Amino acid sequence: MQIFIDSGNLEEIKEILDYGLLDGVTTNPSLIKKEVENLKNSAKTTLGSYIKQILKITKGKRVSLEVVGKNYNEMIKEGLALYKKFNPISKNIYIKIPIDPCLEDVCSTEADGIKAIKFLSSKKIPVNCTLIFTPEQAFLAAKAGAKIVSPFAGREDDYIREMASINFNKKDYFPKKGIKKLNKLLSDNGIVSGVDLITQCKTLFKIQKITCEILAASIRSPRQFREVALAGADIVTMPYDVIKSLLRHHKTSEGMRQFTHDLTPEYENLVKK
Ligand code: G3P
Prior knowledge:
By secondary structure, this protein is of the alpha/beta class. The chain has helices at 10-17, 29-39, 47-58, 72-90, 112-122, 135-144, 153-163, 194-207, 222-230, 240-245, 250-261, 265-272, and strands at 2-6, 24-26, 62-66, 93-98, 127-132, 148-151, 180-181, 184-185, 213-216, 235-238. SN-glycerol-3-phosphate is lined by residues 6, 26, 28, 152, 154-155, 217-218, 220, 237.
């Protein structure tokens, strides 16, 4: 399973790259917005040159950049432009296309995501199809040619709780088997949790022999990372703080303190010589 960082921040990416375990980077307009705000204090750096710096340090690892258009023509124009501008630097750019670019629940351009995936894929531009919330969306994206589909686990959990008017904090653990309210298992049309969304996408792809990779996105905690990994995600993308917390455990630190306390000069000499 590959590990990506979900960030547009150069320093965060650099630090995690230094672990030697990072396989790629995902960005989205919200993550880029944060960096644009930081860049306002630096007169010299433009957003374009900032992204180029990210591509240089990631040295050919997969980096996803998202379009912002809301219809087919805008999305393919932006996808081609992003690819032309940035792919020569890292040779591994993925264009992120939303499965359905509509801002409303019902609109006439809902198939434009699929059409844009088909067009860009026909030009051999790899697509990461984003904002996936059902296995059927994932299936159609893959059939249109997407190389990666990105189901949003954390936001699926948010949605199930929002529909049931449950107060929650985004980092609160949400059980993979779902939760009950008034003795009834809550679900989003048969999906009982974000981890279940990943599991169902994986099962569908396996049964239908689809080779498109499943990238588990919107990961909020180490436990959710563990569960989507066990569900068979091909890639997991996580924010910087979640990646950092994967290594921490109270008993690990306690054990280190104990071993340090018990160190005898004889053993220290033996080890250090
Ligand atoms: O990769 C998608 C991600 O950026 C969304 O995460 O935590 O805002 O739902 P989140």
